[in-house]
Design a protein that fits this description.
- With about 260 residues, the chain is of the alpha+beta class.
- It folds into three domains: about 70 residues; about 80 residues, OB fold (Dihydrolipoamide Acetyltransferase, E2P) (Beta Barrel); about 90 residues.
- Helices cover about 50% and strands about 15% of the residues.
- A hairpin with a 2-residue loop joins β3 and β4.
- α1 packs parallel to α3 and α3 packs antiparallel against α5.
- The longest helix is centred in the first third of the chain and has 37 residues.
- About 0% of the residues have low confidence.
Length: about 260
Amino acid sequence: MHYDVVFDVNTVGYEAWLFPAGMLIFAVIAVLVVRSVPPRPGVVMTPVLRAVPYLVYGFAVLFTVFSFVGTYVQLARLRAAVGSGRVQVVEGQVTDFAPLSDFGNKSESFRVSDHWFAYSDYSVTGGFNNSSTHGGPIREGLPVRVTYVGNTIVRLEVADPKWPSSRTGRSRILLSTLGLLLFAAAGAAYVSIIRRLARYRLVRPTSWQHDSWVQELNPNNYSHEGQVVLGGFRPWIRALFVLEVLGAIIFVKFSFFAHG
């Protein structure tokens, strides 16, 4: 039987870069938000308080580095196992197939002969993890040849080449993540602007979260100088609102409604 290779750990690149990159972006956003928050009236900015943004950034960078090292080491170990022949191979039809569901099962699983495999688009292992829900090839009854290390698939071959491109599935995951990052970045920038405007409020809100966005953008709640500053920020606020909505739409669409 002729098989087509749909995944090989030795030919794929480092595909887990999105996770540490996303953490680094969130770290930068967090620092910008924290640094933009004006101190409460009467609060003395001690050296410890001034160091908070740098501590947040430092921990985030360390977490990013550890994430990168951890995921890259996983990939390197799998490639080393393949190179030294420390792999197992099973061949047969897919049975007991259970697809991933964004609203239910968070992993996809199937059985070939007496070996059971499970993986998920949301779990970084270095091996095959492209679920059929997001464009992967596995389905019930499909003839496959699976090369694996432990329970991680390092090479997947299928007998039927007529399957949705895994590149399409990965693109959906990428777009979904980018939508979430866009939503978070726009929201953080909006909070930063509102915090800068807080110093001009005639009546300060009881919490740092302020009140409704309607009140936050009401010129009557600001001094004359604040109204001028608010007027200058309005185009940016509108743009951020559009970007936040766009990010939410992209995330929802490519996470839940782009299957098939």
